[in-house]
C-alpha cells in the first residue's frame, strides 16, 4: 500500500509495477480513507510523504502491516545516503559518507586506464567514420571541446563529436525568441525533445546511442574524468543548482556515465538530477560504480530519453 500525496501515488505505482523484481505489488491508498484494512489486504506500507503528516500514525501502521517502508529522498525532504543502523539493539539511521579513501580512488584510476586505453584503440575507427559523416553533412570541425567544472572546481575541456550545426547557439536564440514554451522546456532540462539544431540522421544517431560522448575516453586517460561519476555540466546548467550542491559535486571526479543517466537519462529535470547525483556521491563505492557502468549498456541500447 502506497501512502502519500495524491499527485505522487500514480508515478510510484507505475515505478514499482515496471520494476517488479523489487517484489512490491503496489496498491493506492487515499489519506481520506478511514476503512479498517482487511486481513487479506496489503502486507507492506510504503510511506512516500514529505510533510511528516503520517509520522503520528507509524505505531498503528506497524501493528497493521508486516513491514513499513519510509521512502527517503521525497521532493521536499532529501535524506541521501540513508542506511539502517543497529545501535544497542535499537533501530537507528546513519547518513552514509561516500567512499573517498585514497585506496579506492587508486583502484578507480587503475580500472579507468585498464578499460579506457583498449577501448580507445578499438573504437577509434568507428569514431573516425562518424567524424567523416559529420563533415559531409556540415563541413567544419568535427570535434569540439567544451569547458566544464571538474574535481575541486578545476576546468575540464570535455571532448565530444559535434552533433549540431556550427551556428547552433544562434539557432537556439531564435527558438527562444519565437517560442516561449521551448524556453520553458530548456529551463527544466537544458535539452529539447525536438531540437532543430541537431544534424540530420548522423546527429540523432550519435546522440541516441551516446556515441558522441566516446571521445571523452581521452579525458579519462588524461585523469580529468572517470568512467562513473556526476556528469560534468556546463556553467549555464550548474548555475541552476544551489551552491552547496555544486560544492558537493566538486568533491568527486566527473564521469562519462552516472546514476541519473541510467535511471532517467535526459528525461530528468534539474531537481531530480540533483537528487540522484547527491545519492550517488553519498553512497559512492566501487561496487556501485560497477553496477552503474554495467547498467549503462542496456540504458544506451534502449535509447530512452537520450535525444
Write structural notes for this entry.
With about 300 residues, this protein is of the alpha/beta class. The protein folds into two domains: about 1-75; about 100-165 and about 200-300, no CATH class. Helices cover about 45% and strands about 15% of the residues. It has helices spanning about 10-20, 60-65, 100-135, 170-180, 180-190, 200-210, 215-220, 235-240, 245-250, 260-265, 270-280, 285-300; strands at about 1-5, 30, 45-50, 65-70, 80-85, 90-95, 145-150, 155-160, 225-230, 255. A four-stranded parallel beta sheet has the order 2-1-3-4. Strand 3, helix 2 (about 60-65) and strand 4 form a beta-alpha-beta unit. Helix 4 crosses helix 5 (about 180-190). The model is unreliable at about 30-40 and about 75-80 (pLDDT under 50). This is Lipopolysaccharide/colanic/teichoic acid biosynthesis glycosyltransferase. It holds the Pfam family Bac_transf. Keywords: Exopolysaccharide synthesis, Membrane, Transferase, Transmembrane, Transmembrane helix.
Amino acid at each position: 500500500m502506497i501512502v502519500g500525496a495524491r499527485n505522487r501515488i500514480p508515478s510510484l505505482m507505475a515505478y514499482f509495477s515496471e520494476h517488479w523484481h523489487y517484489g512490491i505489488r503496489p496498491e493506492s491508498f487515499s489519506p481520506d480513507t478511514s476503512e479498517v484494512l482487511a486481513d487479506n489486504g496489503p502486507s507492506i506500507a510504503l510511506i512516500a510523504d514529505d510533510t511528516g503528516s503520517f509520522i503520528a500514525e507509524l505505531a498503528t501502521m506497524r501493528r497493521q502491516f508486516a513491514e513499513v517502508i519510509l521512502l527517503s529522498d521525497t521532493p521536499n525532504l532529501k535524506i541521501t545516503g540513508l542506511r539502517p543502523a543497529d545501535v544497542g539493539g535499537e533501530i537507528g539511521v546513519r547518513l552514509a559518507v561516500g567512499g573517498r579513501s585514497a585506496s579506492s580512488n587508486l583502484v578507480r584510476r587503475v580500472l579507468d586506464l585498464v578499460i579506457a586505453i583498449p577501448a580507445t584503440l578499438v573504437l577509434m575507427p568507428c569514431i573516425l567514420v562518424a567524424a567523416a559523416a559529420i563533415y559531409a553533412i556540415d563541413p567544419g570541425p568535427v570535434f569540439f571541446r567544451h569547458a566544464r567544472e571538474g574535481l575541486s572546481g578545476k576546468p575540464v575541456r570535455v571532448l565530444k563529436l559535434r552533433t549540431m550545426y556550427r551556428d547552433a547557439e544562434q539557432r537556439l536564440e531564435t527558438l527562444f525568441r519565437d517560442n516561449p514554451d521551448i524556453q520553458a522546456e530548456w529551463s527544466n532540462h537544458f535539452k529539447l525533445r525536438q531540437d532543430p539544431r541537431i544534424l540530420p540522421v548522423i546527429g540523432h544517431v550519435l546522440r541516441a546511442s551516446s556515441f558522441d560522448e566516446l571521445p571523452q575516453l581521452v579525458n579519462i586517460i588524461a585523469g580529468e574524468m572517470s568512467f562513473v561519476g556526476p556528469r560534468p555540466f556546463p556553467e549555464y546548467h550548474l548555475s541552476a543548482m544551489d551552491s552547496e550542491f555544486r560544492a558537493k559535486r566538486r568533491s568527486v571526479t566527473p564521469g562519462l556515465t552516472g546514476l541519473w543517466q541510467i535511471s532517467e537519462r535526459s528525461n530528468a529535470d534539474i531537481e531530480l538530477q540533483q537528487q540522484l547525483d547527491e545519492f550517488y556521491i553519498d553512497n559512492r563505492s566501487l561496487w556501485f560504480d560497477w553496477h552503474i557502468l554495467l547498467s549503462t549498456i542496456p540504458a544506451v541500447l534502449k535509447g530512452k530519453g537520450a535525444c
